[in-house]
Write a structure and sequence with these properties.
- With 280 residues, this protein is mainly α.
- Among the domains are: 104 residues, Receptor-associated Protein (Up-down Bundle); 75 residues.
- The chain contains 10 helices and no strands.
Length: 280
């Protein structure tokens, strides 16, 4: 009788484990399909070639390392939080690196427009002007222009090559320039004058954005200070009076209180950034 009960328990645990493993496998496959593949594609657009499987392995490894560190340094509650942070951190790093790359491209693009305008006045064509810029410009603008020149040499039409570069970079300034240049070449407009106007418009927008950043810097700094204050205060109390903090870190009430504080902090910082984020 005991053997039959043990066998039934073992079979039930085995079936439950198989169900949990199938659910986790399906969730991991969906995560890889929606997020990891997109992240690998964005890295490829930035000339950082990595496969989705390698990126998924990196995500899981980082999550496992932070999970282990959180368990060794604190307890299982903070270990789970660290594991979740490690699992989603690469997505935000990719997004941050892409935004920084676009910002650098836009800064270099203004000078490239001025140089191309001078090349048009000297009688060069659009591919020739782009090739001159690609030979002198640093990355990332030089990389993108060189890739576009290679596509043109392989027989791709100029409109399609410019559209590919616009989709690959993700810059609004480049999209505007590509659309204007395609229309101007079809209607026979003055390319040199058009590029000078676009360059001056982008410079003026940069000036306004810099002024807005200076005016909103205080609000952003206040948001960071207010957001970090509870964490710093908790760490200070833990260092001064650990007997007051240890009971909270060892009870469900304390875990719930910490979770509520984290959620409220994230919501507060989100609303502050939405208020001070002014798009020009």
């Amino acid at each position: 009788m005991v053997g039959v009960v043990a066998l039934c328990v073992f079979f039930a645990v085995f079936v439950a484990a198989m169900i949990v493993m199938s659910i986790l496998s399906a969730a991991l496959a969906e995560y890889e399909k929606k997020y990891v593949t997109k992240g690998a594609r964005e890295l490829g657009d930035m000339f950082l070639f990595i496969s989705p499987r390698q990126l998924l392995i990196f995500n899981c490894t980082l999550a496992g390392v932070l999970l282990l560190l959180g368990f060794l340094l604190m307890n299982w509650f903070f270990a789970i939080l660290c594991g979740l942070v490690g699992f989603i951190l690469p997505r935000y790093l990719i997004r941050y690196y892409r935004k920084r790359r676009i910002a650098r491209f836009n800064q270099q693009f203004v000078d490239a427009l001025t140089q191309m305008s001078a090349a048009f006045r000297a009688g060069l064509t659009m591919p020739q002007a782009m090739e001159n810029v690609s030979q002198e410009a640093p990355s990332p603008l030089g990389q993108e222009f060189r890739l576009t020149i290679r596509e043109l040499k392989l027989g791709l039409h100029l409109d399609e090559a410019l559209e590919n570069m616009s989709k690959r970079v993700g810059s609004e300034d480049l999209t505007l320039t590509v659309t204007a240049s395609n229309i101007s070449r079809q209607l026979g407009g003055n390319m040199a004058e058009m590029f000078e106007i676009i360059a001056s418009t982008i410079r003026e927008r940069f000036r306004l954005e810099g002024k807005i950043r200076a005016l909103t810097a205080q609000g952003k700094l206040q948001g960071w200070i207010v957001g970090m204050m509870p964490l710093l205060l908790g760490a200070a109390i833990y260092a001064i009076r650990p007997d007051l903090m240890v009971p909270m870190l060892q009870s469900w009430f304390g875990y719930g209180l910490i979770a509520i504080v984290i959620v409220m902090e994230v919501c507060g910082m989100f609303f502050i950034r939405r208020i001070v984020d002014i798009d020009v």
